[in-house]
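Sequence, structure tokens quoted for completeness.
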Amino acid sequence: MFLSSSTVRTEHASRYLQQLCKHFRHKVPVEFAPEEGECRFPFGTARLRADDRQLTVEIEAPDGDRRARTQDVIEVHLLRFAFRENLGPMSWRESEA
């Protein structure tokens, strides 16, 4: 399994988590609450956690290419939703399990 994680500092973490999950639920299976969510794409899974200071995203995928695709989908959409803030680019920490 190929893993990665990134943390973005923002006071609007819960808002962005909910926007991402509401957007993706029309296309893929999604479960979410104000402080955590999971988006299950065909190519990888993104788990999101929000608190009052940051949004943390953890990615799990079967290979490096699909991990990169999952990261890209989350990052592109997050930066689009958060256009009023300068959040990106996201810094991803990658590993294998």
Q: What stands out?
A: DSSP finds two helices and six strands in the chain. The two ends are 5 Å apart (CA to CA). The CA atoms of residues 29 and 40 lie 6 Å apart. The domain at 2-96 is CATH 3.30.310.50 (TATA-Binding Protein).
